[in-house]
Amino acid sequence: MALEASLFTEDTTFFDYGCGYGGDIKHIAQKGYSSAGWDLYYLPETTCTAADIVNLGYVINVIESLAERREALIKAWELTQQVLIVSALVLIDDRKAEGKLAYGDGVITARNTFQKYYEQEELECYIDQVLQVDSIPIDLGILFVFRDEIQAQKFRASRFKTRLSIPMISSKHKRFADYQEKLIPLMNFVSDRGRLPVRGELTEEGDLIAEFGSIRRAFQVILQATNLQEWEQITDKRCQDLLVYLALTKFGDRPKFSQLAAVVKNNIKALFDSYTQACTLADLMLFSLGDSQVIRQCCQNSCIGDKSSNSLLVHVSTMTKLEALLRLYEGCASRTIGRLDEATIVKFNTKLPIISYLFDPDFDQEAHPVLHTSMQIDLRDLKVSYQDYTNEYNPPILHRKNALVTPDYPHYEKFAKLTRQEEDRGLLNDLKKIKNQLGWLKCLEENGV
C-alpha cells in the first residue's frame, strides 16, 4: 500500500521491524530499494538501523506483555525517518474469538500462540497515545504515521483528489498547434491543481515565459484551442477536493496554515480568499451532513450508481467522481476505518447514517457475482459489523452492474448489453425476488432462459 501511495522514491530506504522470515524485505529489495530487517526469533543478529520507511507488520498483536508491546511500537518509531507503517489484526467478526481461551487482553489460539484482536478505533487510539501522533488509517488494521506533519497533510489531501482529464482540444488554432508540445505541461498542471502555477512550480516555466512573455499569456493560447467552461469545471472540482480534505481535518487537530505543504498552501491561496474562508466553507459542508435529508437527496440525485428506495450502490472506481458531499460522507467513515483496499462496492444507506463496503471478487468476471463479504459502519458510533457469505446457502448477488460504474469503465458496454437483454425479457421486473442467488435461478427457470 505504501508502494501504491508513491511513498517510495528513488533513494528511499526500508526497514522491517519484526520481519519474520523476511518476505517483505525481499519484496521491497526486488523493487530496487535499500531493504533490511530484524526479528527477535528469525534475524536476531541483524542490527536495527534507521530508515525512511519502517514497517511494524502484525507484530504488536502477538506480544503478550503490555510493556513489551509498547516498547516495540516506540522502537520502530525511533527508527523511522519518514513514515512508519503499523498493521495489526482487527476484530471484524466476533466469531473469530469463539472457542479460544481468553488470556490477558487477548486469546490463546489453536496453535497455542497469543493473539490480540484490536478494534479499528482502538488500534488508532493506541498508536496515537503511545507515540503522541495523529496516525492515518489506510485500510482495516493498517495505519501510516508520518514523521513530518507537512508530509502527512499533503498525503491526506491527495487521498481526496478527483481524477480529471485535460479538456479536449476543440479547434486547431495555429499558434496553439505550433507550440502544443511546449504547452502540454502547463495544461497538465492546471488540470491537476485547478489553477495557474506560481513562480518555481513548473519545470518548463522559463521556456514558456521566454516564448509567451508570461504563464498567463501562455494559458490564453491554450484557451483559444480548448473550452473555457471545461477549465472552470476543473477549478470547481479542485475547490471541492480541498473542501472535502479540510472538512475531514475537523476530526483531528486541524493543521495551521504554516503546517500545510507548499502545494496545498498555493492551492488555497489561488482558489479561496483565505485559509479561514476555506475552513469555514468546509465546516459548513461537514455540518450539513447532520441532516439526513441532505444525504438522501444527494443519493437520489446522483447520476452515478444503482439507486433503490433506501440505498445507493456505487463501484469503488467511481468514488472520486461522486458529488463532494457524498465523498465527504464516505470520508467520515474512511477517516477512522480506512478505505478498504479489497472493497468492490460502496453502499450508502439513505435512511440511516450507515455506509457499507461490499467485496465481490468476481465483479468483472461473473454476470451476477456473489457477495463474498460485507462490512458495515454506523457513523453514529463508528461501530463496525462484518458478515461473511462464503458458506452461505443463498448469498446475495448483483444485478445491473452497468449502473454501478461509469461509461469509461473497461467492461461498461458488456455490462450494459446484458442489462438491456435481461430487461427485455422481464427478468429484472421484481428485484426483491431475485436479490439472492436461489431467487435468481428460479426466475431464470420460470422464464426459460
What would you say this structure looks like, in words?
The structure is a single chain. With 449 residues, this protein is of the alpha+beta class. It has 3 domains: 13-147, 3-Layer(aba) Sandwich (Rossmann fold), CATH 3.40.50; 174-226; 292-446, no CATH class. It is built from 14 helices and 15 strands. It has helices spanning 23-30, 66-79, 120-131, 149-158, 174-193, 205-212, 215-223, 228-248, 262-271, 275-288, 292-301, 324-337, 412-424, 437-446; strands at 13-17, 34-38, 51-57, 80-87, 101-103, 106-108, 114-115, 136-139, 142-146, 306-307, 311-315, 345-349, 354-359, 373-378, 383-388. The strands form 3 sheets. It has a 6-stranded mixed beta sheet with strand order 2-1-3-4-9-8, with helices on both faces. It has a 6-stranded antiparallel beta sheet with strand order 10-11-12-13-14-15, with helices on one face. Strand 3, helix 2 (66-79) and strand 4 form a beta-alpha-beta unit. Helix 5 crosses helix 7 (215-223) and helix 8 packs parallel to helix 12. The relative contact order is 0.07. The mean pLDDT is 89.
